[in-house]
Design goal:
4 domains; seven-stranded mixed beta sheet; 27 strands; about 20% helix
Length: about 425
């Protein structure tokens, strides 16, 4: 765990000017540092490896292609034409016999090229003369040696590194791994997450009523966490009561506990007190970012088996919670899961992006051919702008002028 001087077991920081908020970029660094090394490697079948990070480089188990193959439908020909056609043909999945000089055989795309063949003559370029029965090329000279043959090892040779460790296993990676001969992959274990949704005012179904509002964060965060490498163990509602909150923090066996709400200093904001009561160490207590500044990161006491446990506390307002997710939860989860950090995405601002006077601002934007365009409905309690966005612009204090470069955090499937 981090030994940052910000670690503490007391609860200062909630509006205390002696405990200034952490810079936004530094908060992400602290989240990564607190994760420590990635979780141990496990072996998974290809389908089960989806979403994990490779624990070792993906090396080719064979040459690709493993033999010379035809790139087109047509004729495998040996030497210069005209050629005498051989009976039958070669299909993908067959092992053809050798081809003698001056002969040809029909061949399908992807089929192994017979030994002795010098080229593949495309179907539309070949014609069998009725008078002689010989195959000729039209136009002449198209069957040059090597034409339309994919040579063995064109894509890779055995033991070549195809992908580095830390690569996220996507559907595309699964395809490459299968082509390279893999049935199972060594990947990092995904961090388990328990999502605690705090608040008596939340409803689980129907429209808002009687002073209560729908829980938007439970449905929003669950797929977002999975998309960023987490194994979501359970999602629970916790009432505005310190006792069940303390019990939930104490008894959770997840690698990461994620809470929504109760991070500020309101009359029913019990999270800081519950953390202190359970012996947690605060690593981050407020971040200089809008929305979402009252987010926090804490190290919980280890699990009974000695595993470290961490907690990310998100504000209760929906867009503020999303800001906390991308600031603290995503870097933490990806580092625990062994995923390589992505290169920052930078683009031009299609219009002026308004900023906060002192803090970083995370602003919902839509990327266009002119750059990032700000969207309306961007208040901390709003989700309409986020639903239309494909990224969050990282706007430094004071804002960004139109045409200037800005970093954009792509939004996950959540």
């Amino acid at each position: 765990m981090s030994t940052s001087p910000m670690n503490r077991t007391t609860t200062p920081g909630r509006g205390d000017p002696a405990c200034p908020a952490v810079d936004w970029e530094r908060a992400g660094e602290l989240a990564r540092e607190s994760a420590g090394p990635p979780l141990p490697a496990v072996t998974r079948g290809l389908a089960e490896a989806l979403g994990h990070a490779l624990a070792a480089p993906l090396r080719a188990l064979t040459d690709l292609p493993p033999f010379d193959t035809s790139a087109m439908d047509g004729w495998a020909v040996a030497g210069p034409g005209p050629w005498r056609p051989r009976a039958g043909g070669v299909l993908a999945g067959e092992e053809p016999g050798p081809l003698g000089a001056g002969t040809a055989v029909r061949i399908a795309t992807g089929a192994p090229v017979p030994a002795g063949a010098s080229a593949v003559l495309r179907r539309e370029h070949g014609e069998i003369e009725e008078s002689t029965g010989l195959l000729s090329e039209h136009p002449a000279g198209t069957a040059v040696p090597g034409r339309d043959i994919r040579p063995r090892g064109q894509e890779c040779r055995t033991d070549d590194v195809l992908l580095p460790a830390g690569t996220t296993v996507t559907a595309r990676v699964l395809g490459l791994a299968a082509a390279a001969g893999y049935d199972r992959l060594a990947v990092h274990r995904r961090p388990t997450v328990e999502l605690l949704v705090l608040g008596d005012e939340l409803l689980d179904s129907g429209p808002p009523r009687n002073g209560r509002v729908r829980d938007a964060l439970g449905p929003l965060l669950a797929p977002w966490l999975r998309d960023n490498g987490a194994e979501l163990g359970c999602r629970r509602r916790i009432p505005d009561d310190p006792a069940p909150l303390r019990a939930a923090l104490r008894d959770s066996t997840a690698d990461v506990v994620l809470t929504t709400g109760s991070t500020a200093a309101g009359p029913v904001d019990f999270l800081h007190d519950a953390l202190a009561a359970t012996g947690a160490r605060l690593l981050v207590d407020s971040v200089a970012v809008r929305p979402g500044h009252p987010m926090l990161l804490a190290a919980l006491p280890p699990a009974s088996d000695g595993r470290p446990r961490l907690l990310v506390g998100l504000p209760g307002n929906p867009l503020a919670a999303v800001a906390g997710t991308v600031t603290l939860a995503v870097p933490l989860l990806r580092r625990l899961g062994g995923h390589t950090d992505a290169e920052p995405l930078r683009t031009a601002a299609a219009a002026a992006l308004p900023g906060h006077p002192r803090d970083t601002r995370l602003l919902p934007v839509r990327r266009t051919d002119r750059g990032a365009r700000p969207l309306p409905f961007d208040g901390p309690a709003m989700l309409r702008g986020l639903a239309c966005a494909d990224g969050l612009a990282v706007v430094p204090p004071g804002g960004v002028d139109a045409g200037a470069t800005v970093e954009v955090l792509p939004l996950s499937a959540g």
